[in-house]
Amino acid sequence: MSVRLQARLRPSDLLGLGFHGLRAHPLRAVLSALGIAIGIAAMIAVIGISTSSEALVKQRLASLGTNLLTVTAGSDMFGGDAKLPADAIIRVRNVPGVETATWISTLKDVHVYRSASIDKGETGGLTVAAAGDDLLEATGSDLQAGAWMNEVTEKLPAVVLGYKAAERLGISTVGSQVWLGGRYFTVVGILERAPLAPELDTAALIGAGIAEELFGFDGSPTTIYERSADDAVDEARDLLPRTVNPEAPNEVKVSRPSDALAAKNTIDQAFTGLLVGVGSIALLVGGIGVANTMVITVLERRREIGLRRAIGATRGHIRSQFLVEAVLLASLGGLGGSLIGWLITWIVATGNGWLVSIPPLVLVAGVVVTMFVGAIAGSIPAIRAARTSPTAALSA
Question: pLDDT tens for residues 201-214?
Answer without folding.
Answer: 999 999 999 999 99
